[in-house]
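ok so I'm stuck.
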Amino acid sequence: MNPSRSLDTLLCIFLIAFVAMFNATVIDIRKCKKHLLSPPSGERFYRQSHPAEKVPSGIPFARREIDIKKITEENHEIVTDNTAEGLKIVFEKNILFKSGKEDITPKGIAVLDKIIENITDFSGNIRIEGHTDNEPVTSACKFTSNYELSMARALSVASYFASKGKFHSDHLSAIGYGELRPRFPNDSPAHRAGNRRVEILLIEEKK
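replied:
not stuck anymore, here's the structure
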């Protein structure tokens, strides 16, 4: 067998194999680009169904907001705010708790009962947040930090909601922020009082 012919044959085989591998690589790269540039159908559906930063609307939401605002008119320590997530109910000036305590006051219980009465048909998530001013906790307080105090208060409200048996526990959450998310500068007694608060956020289900 002619050695030069064998070498030519071998080079042809290598060349054919290289071309085949190159074409396969190009096809794979094109597929990858197509996959990266085209989001999955689920992602497209999510973007279409859940527009960002849109305040929930609809008759049930509007009715609930009106009913709750009637309660705020009777209690000036409660204010409401429409957010991108849903309706926020803010309890100010220790209406729910005495200073340094995590037990809900009788007045607080009465107000929470009115709120609960107006949201028994609410099927979304309920997030309860505890907040404090920047004043350190006193030695008379059993908690060692504002974070612990705010967390205990949020849990007290969440536990009370759960005890009424009207809300699924999976839809209730509690979090304490301490002094980390003030509404006002902590530069006066009035501002510090406004920062000591509990917020209940009614997060509407996306449709």
